[in-house]
Known about the structure:
The structure holds 2 protein chains of 2 kinds.
Chain A: H1 2-26, H2 30-56, H3 59-92
Helix pairs in contact in A: 1-2, 2-3
Chain B: H1 2-26, H2 30-50, H3 54-78, H4 85-89, H5 92-117, H6 124-130, H7 140-148, H8 150-170, H9 182-205, H10 213-229, H11 240-263, H12 276-300
Helix pairs in contact in B: 1-2, 2-3, 3-10, 7-8, 8-11, 8-12, 9-10, 10-12, 11-12
Amino acid sequence: MIDFLSMLLIIIGVAFFAAGSIGLLRLPDLYTRLHALTKADNLGLGMIVIGLALLSGSLVMAVKLILVWILVLAGGAASAHLIAQQALRRERA
Amino acid sequence: MLAYLWNLLDLVLASLVVALGWAAVASTDLRRGVVLFIAFGLLLAIIWARLNAPDLALAEAAIGAGLSGALLLAALRDEPATVDDIAYKQGPVSWATGLLSLVVGGAFAWALLHAHSAADPMRLADQVSTHLEQSGVSNPVTAVLLNYRAYDTLLELAVLLAAVLGIIAVGQARPAYRPAGPLFGALVGWLVPLLIVTGGYLLWVGAHAPGGAFQAGALLAGAAVMLRLGGNPGAGLPSAVTQRWLLVSGVGVFIAVGLIVTVDGHAFLQYPHNGSGMLILLIESAATLAIATTLALAYIGGTAPVGQDVAPGEEFKNQGLSD
């Protein structure tokens, strides 16, 4: 049951990453690309992390994985905003 | 089936790393080249992890991708906006570099091929694991770096010291960055303490698990880079005199320990059996601080300006802040 659930979560996560990558390649401008990319990073990685945490079977490992996710969340959100801010500033200049 | 999938993954990694390396070198846009180089370093870290070499993976991610990337980006910032790319791409120097890389790469490939096929009963890895108990640490990589081949590591630290002396002698500190906005400021505010704690952890854990002075020092230097990007011109470094003490502490403590053990009748850098763990920790602690200061100063490009108050919002990119 847990195997099935974690497999499902990981597959959903991979789907998010695939969608994000397609968005990065296909979307027309920087802002929409950033949008696609951050969704993939945040949700996709979250799904994969929860799936792996279930698979790992140890609480310490699960906490470590979730900490990794939180770090990526903060770093990804901040850097996406910084890139967008910089692009906006350049557009206005 | 599973082995087949792993092979497929290895094939993808191997071809990606070659493609990324090529793209980074062949890029006519320097900024794009640098970003590709950072991606190349991260991929290389994944490959080291896949090869069961977590120490190397950590070092590559922290130094190869992270700090080298930051150094290259900082150098790009000083470059004029229009760089004559053609001058980089053609000419005898780049041909000679290419030829040299080819020769060195060929030699490495040849050596690797022979190392794999040679039926050598005296593998060094076996030697390391049989004598691991005497080394004072249980992480074989640290045992090699700080005990069996301590000379190599001492000289590596000396190379770093020589490099940073050159930077201080020639370089003027690069212009500082304007103070960060609330978003980046907040990121710096909680990431820097986290980096310092993680650096301390890596230093301590290096005795029995992947980690050690180089990774720990790179993380501390990463914290300094964050601080500087956030508008702190001195990157959180102490006063200029203390900086110099920190710079020489790595080589200094190493040599001092090496000499002190000779009083006891041991050879230079031959640690006594019961105290080797402590001595290694002492050397690594000093080395961590020295490496961190060295890398931070390399990023700043000269002696860090300390104690300059910067009014919020003040743009001082072109003032040429030096000391």
